Amino acid sequence: MSNKSSLYKYTSKSSYFMGYYNPINIPFDDTDYLLEISPIYNNKPGKLAYDLYGDERLGWIFSYFNRDKIQDPIFDLKTGMIIKVPTANKVSNYI
After folding, report:
1. Do the domain assignments include residue 2?
2. Does residue 11 form part of some domain?
3. Could you tell me the pLDDT band of residue 3, with boundaries at 50, 70 and 90?
4. 46 and 9 Cβ atoms separated by less than 8 Å
5. What global pTM score does this model have?
6. Residue 40 pLDDT > 70
7. How far apart are the C-alpha atoms of 41 and 51, rounded to whole Å?
8. Domains identified in the chain, total number
9. How confident is the model at residue 24, as a pLDDT?
10. What is the extent of the structural domain holding 57?
11. Any domain includes 43
12. pLDDT band at 84, cuts 50/70/90?
């Protein structure tokens, strides 16, 4: 879990266990935009992350930015849902 796309990027690790979760802090700002989930992304945050950011491992970003709507990062991403999404430039600056 030490790759640059990991949600656990800043969490300490040893060969036996992970430390307490230390979250990535990506602030909300005016560059974030709203996106309506189309049928091809229904329950597929990895596909959406790949199409927006070029890395399917960044699917966790959608639940991070939409905590009020997405509790389950896979099964809560539904067709027609409108979510807040950060720009690719913003993601690359923080990840």
Report:
1. no
2. no
3. low
4. no
5. 0.79
6. yes
7. 10
8. 1
9. 75
10. 33-94
11. yes
12. very high
Express each pLDDT in 20-36 by its tens digit.
Answer: 776 777 888 899 999 99
Look up residue 39 and give its two tokens.
Answer: 């049928």
pLDDT at 6 over 80: no
Own/partner contacts of 88-95, CB < 8 Å, gap of 24 or more, are 88/52, 88/53, 88/54, 89/31, 90/26, 90/29, 90/31, 90/32, 91/26, 91/53, 91/58, 91/61, 92/53, 94/24, 94/25, 94/26, 95/4, 95/5, 95/9, 95/24, 95/58
Q: 3 lies in a domain?
A: no
Q: Would you say 63 and 48 are in contact if contact means Cβ atoms under 8 Å apart? A: no
> Which residues, including other chains, have CB under 8 Å from residue 17's CB and lie 6 or more apart?
none
Q: What is the gyration radius of the CA atoms in the chain, in angstroms?
A: 14
Distance CA(78)–CA(95), nearest Å, equals 25
